Amino acid sequence: MRKFLKYGVGGLVLLLVLLSGGFYVWGEMSLARPTAAALAAMQSDDHVTVEEGKYLSFRPASGEPTLGVIFYPGANCDIRGYAPVFHRLANRGYLVVDVQMPRNFAIFAPDRADDVRAAWPNIRHWVIAGHSMGGAMAGYYAFHHQKDLAGLIIWDSYPPEQDSLADSDLPVWHIHRATLAGAPPEKFEEMRHLFPASSTWVPVPGGIHMYFGSFDGGGYKEQWTPKISREAQQDIVVTAMLNALQKIAASGR
Questions:
Q1: Residue 126 burial by CB count (10 A; 0-12/13-18/19+): exposed, middle or buried?
Q2: Which of 98, 109, 151, 189 shows the smallest number of beta carbons within 10 Å?
Q3: Is 144 helix (H, G, I), strand (E, B) or coil?
Q4: How do the domains of the chain map onto residue ranges?
Q5: Could you tell me the mean pLDDT of each successive run of 10 residues in the chain, 253 residues long?
Q6: Is the dihedral of CA 183, 186, 187, 193 positive or negative?
Q7: What CATH class does 33-251 carry?
């Protein structure tokens, strides 16, 4: 029995190590990497300061923002791929903190926003946002921290069913890909009951899932063919984000 336990436990540990290593290799191979345009947006300029460290942050080069956005990235996406959108938001006066997740999966650390809030104590109003899996985990966090947040913005995703926000008074926006006629994917309609009735849905007609960021490669298989350019889609996303943030700031929540 002792010999079995010795080698059985040792074998289990070895198996877990091998599985972890295989997951890491798969993750590296299927990682959605930033485009040249995304890397260019990683540079600070006269209007926006970009800092890489424990977090990737974008903030106005002058002045002290009072509203910040905590962003959870999509699964297996290099967080730098969102830089073009976040650079533009920071240029309009907002702090944006792009959160690196373990193994690039937000599901492994859905409460990481706690650390972000502690790291920027001068921010009076926090909005949590996220894309894809990151959007779902932002929904999870919002459900469990409604009194700590000023709003939730989900990109092309929906909250987990067990964390329904249907009865929440939290301001919620959903920015989603849509047909040219403005209709969202059928799955989103099926999950509409997880959002507050007062939530604002903003369609991106002709858009696709990965055009919310600026990525090359990756393992995500698009369901739709894009009908607009990446730049045009991100123009819509930035406008929607600014509208949402302006309304949240005006509400004083």
A1: buried
A2: 189
A3: helix
A4: 33-251
A5: 42 38 45 98 99 97 97 98 99 98 96 98 98 98 98 98 98 98 97 98 98 93 94 99 96 81
A6: positive
A7: alpha beta
